[in-house]
Structures are given as C-alpha cells and as structure tokens.
Amino acid sequence: MKTRHLLLLVLFIVSFQLLTAQPNINLIPKPLSLERTKGVFKITSSTMISVSKNLNNKAKQLKNFLEPALGFELPVTNKLTQRNCIELKLEPSTKESGKEGYQLDIKPDKVVLTANDEKGIFWGIQTIRQLLPSQILRGAVVKDISWELPCMLISDKPRFKWRGLMLDCSRTFISKEQIKRYLEVMSYFKMNVLHLHLTDDQGWRLEILKYPELTGICSKFHESFKEPSEFQGYYSQDDMREIIEFAGQRNIEIIPELEMPGHSSEIFAAFPTLSCKGDTSKIHPFFKGPSVHNEILCAGNEANFRFIENILDEVVTLFPSPYVHIGGDEAPKKHWKECPKCQNRIKEEGLKDENELQSWFVKRIEKYLNTKGKKLIGWDEITEGGLSSSATVMYWRGWVKDVPEKVAGLGNNLIMTPTSSCYFDYNYETTSTEKVYSFNPVAVAFGAEKSEKILGVQANFWSHIDRTSSAIDKQLFPRLIALSETAWSSNDNKDWNEFKIRLKTIKKSLDIIGIYYFNEQ
Ligand SMILES: [Zn+2]
User: Fold this and answer.
1) Fold match between domain 24-156 and domain 162-513
2) What is the spatial order of strands in the sheet that 76-77 belongs to?
C-alpha cells in the first residue's frame, strides 16, 4: 500500500509540474513580466482583428505580418468582438508603461493587446509574431501547422528609450535594400534607432541639392583604386525619405550623422578651399591611406560655416528626428595649429588652444541646429575644451573612464557605445555575443543613481573590414540580438545561459528571414 501511495504522490507531482512548468517561451528581448496561464489561442480562418478606428493602421500591419504565411484573411472590425479575436486597444490607464510599453493578455477565446500609444501596440505585435511558430515569418503560405499562441499575461516596457544601431555607410556604401533588411530585423527585436554615418573620409553618401558635387564627386573612390561599384554611391533625398518612412512604420527613428570638423577629407575632393591647406584630396579605400587624416575643415574660414549651414538646412528638413549627429571625433589639430585663419580665430574668440577651437566650432554648429529646433549629438571628444549644456554625448572611448561621470555631472545626456562591448566591426574573439549580452551600461558608466542620464545603448558597425552584405550580417548577428535584450530588458531579468537557449530557437527565425549570422564555438 505504501509503495502505491508513494507512486501516486510521484505521479501527482510530475503531472502538477507538467501543468505548471514554464515551457520555453522564446521571446527576445525578454519581457518585464510574463505569467503563463493554461491553454492556447488558435488563429484560424474565422479569427478577426478588433480595433477602434484610430488603430486601423496597426490592424493593417498585423494583417500584413501574419497573412502571407497563414494563407487566409484576418478581417478587421471596428465593433467590439467577444470571441475568437485579437483586440488592439489604446488605453490611457496604463500610464506607467510609457509610450512603448504594452500589455498582452492571451486567453483561449481572445487576445487583448493594450497600450498607451501606437508605439506600444507595435511592439506588442512583435511579441505576438515571436510567440507564433517561426514559420509565420515566411512570405508564402505554410500548410499543416497549428497557429497557436500559448496563453499568458505579459506586461512589458523598455529599460532604455534609445536602443540603437549605427551603420557606417561611408567606408562602404550600404544599399537602401540592405538597410531595409536591417530595419525589419531591428523592429522584430524592438530596437528603435538607426544611426547612419553618412559622411567620412571614404565618401559623402547623402544628396545635397545645393552642392551636387558632394555626390557627383565626393561619393566615389578615386578611379585608380578600382573599387567595386557597389561599395560606393549615395542616397538621393528620395531614397532617404523612403528609408525614413519604412523605418517610421516600424517604430524606428533615423539619425543622420555628418562628420565635422575632422573625418571630412572627402569634401576636399570637390571643395579643397574649405580645408586649412587647400589641397585636393583623393578618396581612397580605408586601408589604402591614413585611417585618420590631418586634413580638416578650416575653423577660421567663414565660408565653411555658410557651407555647413546650407547643408544642415536640407538635413533638418529631410530628417524628422529631433537629433542631428555631427561626429566630432578624431579631429587632428595639426593643420589648425599651422593655419593663420584658425590661429586668428583662436585670438579673436579669446580661446586657449585648438581643443577650445573645436569646442567653439561644435557650439556654433549646435546653436545653429537649435535655431532649427534640433538637438546635437557628438562622439565623446566633444567634451574636450568645454561642452554645451544641451549636447548629447555618444560615449565610445571606453578607455577614457571619466567621461560618463563628467558628462552626467554637467547634466548632459549620454548614449553608451563603448568599444569594449558595442563595436561590431571587432571580431567575435574580441567581442563575443556573451560579452555584448553581459554589458550593463549603467554599471560601466557609473552608479545606478545617475541612470536617468543614460538615454540608452547602441551598437556601432564600421564598414572598413567587413564590406559585403553577408559579411556585415555576420558581424551584426547574433550580437545585435544580445544587445536588444541589454537595451530593453531589466538587468535583473537577464541570464546568459537561459538567453542562449532562446537564441538557438530565434536563429531559426533568422534563417527564414534570410539573415546570415556568425556561429560561435
Ligand atoms: Zn584653418
């Protein structure tokens, strides 16, 4: 009898555990809270999408995401439906979740996605996509599959409001189509900023109507280098509008970066008089010349400011983002030291040295941007020689440890992109996916008490080493997926070993989307 009782007890425990065990829910980034409940919601040909009229566009997006693989239509109704529907609704009562947070309640008879804002609804839709079998990402009908959503209650919101990726489109031109591929994947992992490094010594990549030479001459490598045509080129303003719109539909903001005063030698291929020395430059692939040029925009020449302001006038009209990134990194001061115009400027403005001249330069550009209602971002060198009170600093020089403290102490905002964890041009031996995952931006910068000064995190991809589409994919993935969780999920919720299991399944989604990724040993 005793043995029988024991057996029954064991059976009871096992079945209880089976019922209550958390099956592996493969969501990345991990939601703030997830409570698994019993049952599943099945999407069938009689399922409807129920929305209020102001969310018709989100219903359309949900349809577009799901219908190609489902092979049947999900009709949209503006009437409240009680059963077999996915309901999307805006509800201001969930204020603490901000614009990007959402609640997702999946019950056997109904799915309800609630948020304060369309942004939250969009992220909730991405969660629904990830909860379905990964075949849902296929562009064609998938047969013999049950489209089930496991029942659960999710309450979610991001840790950081800036969850970014930078693509260097100068060292190697990155096509509009490839940018769209990345925007698709970024939005699937709830990343919301794409920073485009549009100008550098290797080429000017954005059409400026007032200066056609910038794209006519400065977007091409010198012919003597015989660079493949796909590595050079530019985005017309129409291309850029298309990218911005495509990104906007996916909750992603495009941040333009125009490098100044250094990393600007490509400009002198067409406008040599804007440099201190006046020499015409010959645009070379990254490894065929110096990685940092001494040629620099002359800070003493008023014509330069008219030139920059005319360019910025077009940029601020083209890009809806409140931010314009002006670079500001690695600006060698050799030519400024030797230039009578620059030395004259230092004297006139009562500046101490060339570092202060750079700071004066940046502040002047910032003032101009502010008159256009825009905010300036610069690489962390803009802190040298004095920082204006409103500039946002992108921290990249991880070895200059006191920058975050200094920036936050002045009350300025920071975006964390240190080389140690966020440089995706580095190989995987140097920067493994685990290293990216383990990165805690607040701990690296300072104590938690100043975390509100950290807008967020960003991966930077410089395109001088890996240049083909598949090679760039492999540099970005799976590291970008790891960073998406660092950017969105709470630090307490992170666990590398458990993430690895989810990542394994998510890689199947990358296979379906057609994204290459690096396989680490
Ligand atoms: Zn000069």
Assistant:
1) no
2) 33-42, 148-156, 102-107, 110-115, 85-90, 48-51, 76-77
**Which H helix or E strand runs over 459?**
strand 454-461
Local structure of 259: helix, strand or coil? strand
Q: What is the distance in A from the centroid of ligand 1 to the CA of 275?
A: 7
Q: Which residues are catalytic?
A: 200, 263, 330
Ligand 1 midpoint to CA 39 (Å): 71
What is the distance in A from the centroid of ligand 1 to the CA of 262? 12
Ramachandran area for residue 324 (φ above 0: left; ψ -120 to 50: alpha; else beta)? beta
Where in the chain are the domains? 24-156, 162-513
pLDDT tens by residue, 280-314: 999 999 999 999 999 999 999 999 999 999 999 99
Indicate the helix (H) or strand (E) that contains 127.
Answer: helix 118-131
Q: How far is the CA of 271 from the centre of ligand 1 (A)?
A: 14
Does 389 score more than 90 pLDDT?
no
Strand partners, 246: none
Q: What is the pLDDT of residue 21?
A: 45
Q: Cα separation of 313 and 371, whole Å?
A: 11
The candidate with the shortest Cα–Cα distance to 444, out of 418, 464, 465, 411, is: 418
Residue with the two structure tokens 């803009």: 382
The fold of 24-156 is Chitobiase; domain 2 (3.30.379)
Which superfamily is assigned to 162-513 in CATH? Glycosidases (3.20.20.80)
